[in-house]
Each structure stands twice: as C-alpha cells, then as structure tokens.
Amino acid sequence: MPVVDNSGCKAALPEQEWRVGxxxxxxxxxxxxxxxxxxxxxxxxxxxxxxxxxxxxRMASDVPxxxxxxxxxxxxxxxxxxxxxxxxASKMCGYQGKDHIKLAATxxxxxxxxxxxxxxxxxxxxxxGKETARMVWGNQASVLVGDFLLGRAFKLMVETKSLRxxxxxxxxxxxxxxxxxxxxxxxxxxxxxEDAYMRVISAKTAALFAAASEIGAVxxxxxxxxxxxxxxxxxxxxxxxxxxxxxxDYGGRSAALGKxxxxxxxxxxxxxxxxxxxRRGNSEERAFWQRTLQQGERRDGDLGHAIELMQRHAAxxxxxxxxxxxxxxxxxxxxxxxxxPYRVALTKLVEFCINRNH
Length: 358
What we know:
mainly alpha, Farnesyl Diphosphate Synthase, two-stranded antiparallel sheet, 71% helix, globular, disordered N terminus
C-alpha cells in the first residue's frame, strides 16, 4: 500500500517498514497447532477431493473470464476450513449421504464470493501473497464473478432440497453483507468501540463459520439442540479465528497470514488491537492513530511505533486473551456430542486457530 510523505505525495513503502513485527506468544509449546489442520484434512480427505471436483465442475462457464478469475482465488492456497467444517460436522452427526458435498461446495463458493467483494471494498492488492483478482481483472469483473459464485451457491443449496440448510446459508449471506456495510461505515473511525467491532466480525467472519458447522447437523437430521451446539461452535471459532488474525497482523510472521505483517495498518483498518491501544492511550498516542488510520498520513517508522504502542498497552496480549475465551466456548459447545475422531479433530482445530503464530 502507498504511504503519504510530507509533501502529500504517495510514496512506496520502504522494504524495512513491512518487515517490522514481533511474534505474539500464542502457547506454541503446546505443539498441536500446525498438525490440527493436517489431521482434519486427513480425516475428510476423500470428501474434500469430491468437494474440489464439484467446485471445478460448477465453476464452468462459457465466459472464459469467470472460471479463470474464480480459479485464481479458489486455487490460491487457502486451507478450506469452512467446507471442512461442514464435512466434519455432518460426519460427526452420523450423516451417510452425499448432499454434504454440495453444501460444502456451497460454503466455499459463498466464501470466495465474499472475498472477491471484500478485496474490492477494501482496495486490497494482495491476498495470500498473490495479487488479488481485482488487480488482475479489475474491480468490475471481481464483483460480477462474485455474483456468479453466489448464484452457483444458491443453485447447489436448492439441489439438496433442504429448506432449513437453504435458510441457514441465506441468512448467513445476508448477515455477511450487513457486516460489510457496518465495517464500511466504521472504516478508519478511531472512535469505534470494542462492542461495535465485535458486531462487525460476528457478522463478517463468524456468521459463515456458524452456518458451515450448523448445516452439518441439519443435513444429518439431528435435533435442534445439536444444530444449536454446532452453530455456537462455528460462531465462536470464527470470532477467535478473526481476533488471532488481528493480532498476527501486528505480531506474527507473514507465512501465518498469507499477507505481509502490517497490511491492516497500511489499509487503515480498525481492528481490536487498534481499538484497545487507542482507548488506553494518551492524547498524543490517540493523535498518532488519528493521523495514520483516520487521515491516512503514514510515514516511515509508523508501523513500528504502532506495534510499540500496542505492546505498551497490552493490546495484542489482550486480543489473544479474548480469542482464547471464545475458543473455550467453541470447545465446550462440542461436549454434547459423543467422543469420535471428528469431535477430536474439531476440538484441535480451535486450538490451531488460537495457537497459529507461524
């Protein structure tokens, strides 16, 4: 992202600026982080191969730009956590059919569509270390292909003939859109409260995690108690996931994020570490946040100073502490299910999300 120098002109961000960062301690010695996703992937490998085949099939279009652009993002190296949640939750609930494959593909299409739209709204240049689709094909194409994927998602849901699953994912799509609008309204607003920020991530991030998990119980025709438990699991996992992401942007390693440390700062995003540091700071420190984020006037060394202020006010540590709280709620939500490899994997997934610092 460009910065503004003292003349008011845009200048390239110096290389040393984006390398500034400190690693947030996230209990790495527990040793379960990186292996948890691999364990879940191994458990659902057969189903996820079918999901990937389904995604490739349903991305097909007579308009070449559509599969090209969609593939650019879908094949960019994401872990596919959300569709894996649908597969694992449905198997934990004893589902034996095939419709969970379609629903998992639906979740991935919806997620991909929101990423395409997010990158346009946020004016993002990179995602997972690659140029965003909007940088390659432009904003208009990104928005329209996102709309195409939304259409594909809803067609898949109809094919499952589960009205309840359709209702859950349709609600999630609406909530995600509301979250985007809330974030846009609060963009670069340093007066944003923690409650307001939590409402944004509950809508933008947690809603799809919750839906992806809940439909696993719905497709298996389990009772409302189990569906609600999986909704709680997904929602709280999603919140924890996003809070750790917020902290890692200022205190992690680039490989953990798929982006450079400090991207949120350069894009002027108000995340929880910023909210905490701003609220706890003095008038001079608040003026710094207003200049860099609200007014967009960033100078050499500002990212390093931002991290220093966060450390001074324990903003990163407290963001992780909040993430651990939501992670504990997610794990407790699984307690009503019998012990199984899927329950173990879903529990370890929470620990991975909390402990990922590399």
